[in-house]
């Protein structure tokens, strides 16, 4: 009797799934990644349903570019956006258990955004959404970027040294002007630096 009861419950559950379809569940928290990393966008069915002979579709962005389309037991590469060519996959064994998670390889900054995980079971369609945020990996910057930063820092140092040197020279000239012992002098009202002239002549300009 217990065995028959369990069978009845199972058949009733399958009937409900057939009429309403399973729930497609995605994580609510956004997924964070760095450039060139491999990520997994989680998506699964509740209750689990074997999707190996069904249709699973992942799309991206406002225009719903097709990231991956699995149907008739295989990937449909013709519908896949070229941006994601050879960079996506789903687990065949996972589909057997209702795991629709998308594996995205070597992520790029342009991969950031909202992804839609959808299933098609006969006339039923259901979906959920995953947000991916990709940031540049500062530890893996290109050699060109590092050289550019070094050159910019070097130029900044040279400018600082020049400014400091000019300030020191002006201070020395001002001191020489005050003591009337130096060959050069500068007065507050002067519009040019006088070289090898007396302080009186400089002030008189």
Keywords, please?
single chain, 205 residues, alpha+beta, 2 domains, 6-stranded mixed beta sheet, 3-stranded antiparallel beta sheet, 4 helices, rod-shaped, disordered C terminus, glycoprotein, membrane, Ig-like_dom, signal, Ig-like_fold
Write the layout of secondary structure elements.
Elements: H1 2-20, E1 23-25, E2 31-34, E3 39-41, E4 44-46, E5 55-60, E6 65-71, E7 74-75, E8 88-90, H2 92-95, E9 102-104, E10 113-121, E11 124-135, H3 143-179, E12 184-185, E13 194-195, H4 199-203
Parallel strand pairs: 2-11
Antiparallel strand pairs: 1-4, 3-9, 5-6, 5-10, 6-7, 8-9, 10-11, 12-13
Your description of this structure?
With 205 residues, the protein is α+β, with helices and mostly antiparallel strands. It has two domains: 22-137, Immunoglobulins (Immunoglobulin-like), CATH 2.60.40; 161-205, no CATH class. Helix content is 32%, strand content 29%. The protein has helices at 2-20, 92-95, 143-179, 199-203, and strands spanning 23-25, 31-34, 39-41, 44-46, 55-60, 65-71, 74-75, 88-90, 102-104, 113-121, 124-135, 184-185, 194-195. A hairpin with a 2-residue loop joins strand 6 (65-71) and strand 7 (74-75). It is rod-shaped and about 115 Å long. The N and C termini lie far apart (118 Å).
């Amino acid at each position: 009797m217990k065995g028959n009861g369990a069978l009845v419950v199972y058949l009733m559950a399958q009937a409900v799934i057939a009429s309403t379809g399973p729930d497609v569940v995605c994580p609510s928290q956004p997924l964070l990644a760095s450039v060139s990393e491999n990520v997994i966008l989680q998506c699964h069915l509740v209750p689990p349903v074997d999707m190996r002979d069904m249709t699973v579709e992942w799309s991206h962005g406002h225009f719903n570019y097709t990231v991956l389309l699995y149907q008739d037991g295989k990937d449909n590469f013709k519908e896949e956006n070229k941006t994601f060519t050879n960079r996506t996959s789903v687990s065949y064994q996972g589909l057997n258990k209702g795991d629709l998670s998308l594996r995205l390889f070597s992520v790029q900054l342009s991969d950031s955004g909202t992804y839609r995980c959808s299933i098609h079971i006969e006339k039923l369609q259901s979906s959920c959404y995953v947000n991916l945020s990709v940031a540049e990996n500062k530890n893996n910057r290109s050699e060109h970027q590092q050289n550019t930063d070094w050159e910019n820092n070097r130029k900044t140092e040279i400018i600082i040294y020049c400014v400091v040197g000019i300030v020191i020279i002006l201070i020395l000239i001002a001191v020489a002007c005050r003591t009337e012992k130096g060959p050069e002098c500068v007065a507050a009202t002067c519009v040019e630096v006088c070289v090898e002239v007396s302080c009186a002549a400089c002030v008189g300009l």
